[in-house]
Structures are given as C-alpha cells and as structure tokens.
Amino acid sequence: MSRRFPWVLAPVEWSEQAWFTRGVWHAKPLFSHHTADRTVLATKRQLRAMGKRPGGQDPCAFLYFRCRKAGKLVFANLYLIEKAKPVRPMTPARQAALDKAMAARRTCRGCGETGWAELPKAHRTCEACLAEAGLEPDSYLHDYLVGDPTLTADEHAALTAAIPRQVGVRLAA
Ligand SMILES: [Zn+2]
Predict the structure, then answer these.
(1) Contact (CB, 8 A) for 43 and 79
(2) Which class for 29: exposed (0-12), middle (13-18), buried (19 or more C-beta within 10 A)?
(3) Average pLDDT, integer, range 111-135
(4) Is the predicted pLDDT of residue 1 greater than 60, yes or no?
(5) What spacing in Å lies between the alpha carbon of 120 and ligand 1's midpoint?
(6) Residues 87, 51: contact at Cβ < 8 Å?
(7) How far is the CA of 96 from the centre of ligand 1 (A)?
(8) Could you tell me the distance, in angstroms and rounded to a whole number, from the CA of residue 10 to the centre of ligand 1?
C-alpha cells in the first residue's frame, strides 16, 4: 500500500538534527498532526495565542490535516517561534485608522450617510439612492417598495414575455 505522504527522516533548516517529516510540499518540509514540535513550530493562530506574530518571516514548513467540516485536506503555514515578534499594541491612531476604513464600507457614495450595515462592495450605495436612481426591472427592491407601480399590467406582461425563462415553469396564458 502506498501512502500519499510517507514518513521521511529529513534534515531541516532550523535544527541540526534530522526530523521525521511527511516529505516535502512546495519545497518545504511537511508535517502531519502531532508531528511538528509545538515548542519550535507554530501556525499563525498559535503564534497569535502566544501574543506573537510571524513578523515577516516566510513559513519554514507546512502542516496538513483533514478538516472534517470542509471534508478535505488543509495545509497550514508553520513558523519558527524563535523568529516570531511580539504583536504590536493597538494605538489610538491605529484604532482611528481602522475605524475610518470600516466606516467607509458603511458609507453611501450617493448621499454620504453612514449606516450600520456594510453596503455592497460593487457600488457602496444605499437602497434609497438605488431606488432614486431608477431600479432595474428585476431588482429585488420592487418587492419592498410601496406606492405607484413602476409598470402597468400590460408593460409587465410584455416584460415577462421578453425575459427568457430559466426555470421550467410556464404560466398559463
Ligand atoms: Zn445613499
């Protein structure tokens, strides 16, 4: 039986001793669950839990594991803990810059109003401005707007006939 990642005793760049690895992946040593020494190597999230960050270093190895939820193999970067740097503290200026960037996502480009919800990335326009600019005939906003219908019954029938049906449902004429 052949394994996809057979055990290999290989030299590693961060140690003088050879480590048991699961071969090479993208030109770096590959480790499986419980085989990478946690006192030497850590993932980005494990570093973060220690109050550290990779600090610009390239990953020195990779870790693979099977994610049950995703139903597939996942590969994670492994970093050397001794090369990691402490997380930079949050400063008022940094917090202000982040707040500004996040507020820009909630600010309408049309009217400049800042709401609670993030606006669509494509146009960053609020629904009121969209409605004022004129809606597409198939816009979902028609379902929520009360008032005069945008189309008469005849125009609506003509439009419905013009749109090719994607669902195999044909209304009785
Ligand atoms: Zn707006």
Answers:
(1) yes
(2) buried
(3) 90
(4) no
(5) 12
(6) yes
(7) 24
(8) 60
